[in-house]
User: Fold this.
Amino acid sequence: MKERIEKLGAQFNEALSGITDTEALENLRLQFMSKKGYISELMKELGKVPNEQKKEVGQTINTFKQEITELFEKKKDELIRLQEEILIQGAESYDESLPTEDPTGSYHPITLVQRELEDIFESMGFDIEDYTEVVTDFECFEAVNIPPFHPARDMQDTYYLSTANQLLKSHTSAAQNAILRKYGDALKKDGRPIRAVFPGRCFRNEAVDASHDNTFFQMEGMMVDKDISISNLIYFMKTMLSEVFGREVTVRLRPGFFPFVEPGFELDIKCLNCGGTGCPSCGNSGWLELCPCGMIHPNVLKLGGINTDEDPFEYTGFAFGLGLTRLAMMKYGVKDIRTFNDGDLSALSQFTSR
Ligand SMILES: [Zn+2]
Assistant:
């Protein structure tokens, strides 16, 4: 019996030294330690050993089992370490100066328009804010003065998640409350005006056609301080849009209804194509409807923790919404809104990247 164990030990050592991968190691383990392996065989044979030797032989088998288990674990660690080293060496030998055969890709036209606008707003002292696409009913509607059963909700049917109270935001205004809360302290303690723009992907349950899509991009902005008036709004919008289009623009305001502003406006710019005389791209009206804006509704400022019931007009501000998708269509002459989301690289990759 002892000889047999010694022989098996030598056999194990020899096999182990020749093993270079974990699969072969596992096979060796099964050969010795599985139910039908050598160790089990030895245990069976132990039954035939005379009683007075049983204890000693039993211990020898156990010691043998322990020894090969330890050797096995040691080898396993070694192999894993070796594999890691090979991986690391492989990574180090990668030559990043080699020219690539794959094209490096390009930015999406909406990304390009968004970055351009962000640069303009940053230069005007605005903070750029990001916000989630999944929001609560409160953030998307109630916080911006659209209570349950308000008819304005009909125009903003969106996608509701099965998780209670969550939905895909139907407009970037869903971030207003969070941004008022984030910058409200600095406004009230240090007198730092709130100036923020927040671009984002929005969703509506729309019938899709060339000018409507269920997924689109907006960029919304807010400015809140003491004594902000409609004249500030008009001056700011004119300056901002002149920057955006790279030339002087003429603006006009028409009354418009948006629950989160009061008063609310539709802002038009004089057609850049025809200069106001009328052409097909402005529907011969001479004006292009561009962005909704208005003075932030007192309820929105109150829910955002800016004003109190005692003084609901301590701080005032304006808000505006830019359709990034719409601007990208205008800028790049894209006729069909679906181009932006259908993933056709031949269409999307032709714009300059930066
Ligand atoms: Zn025109």
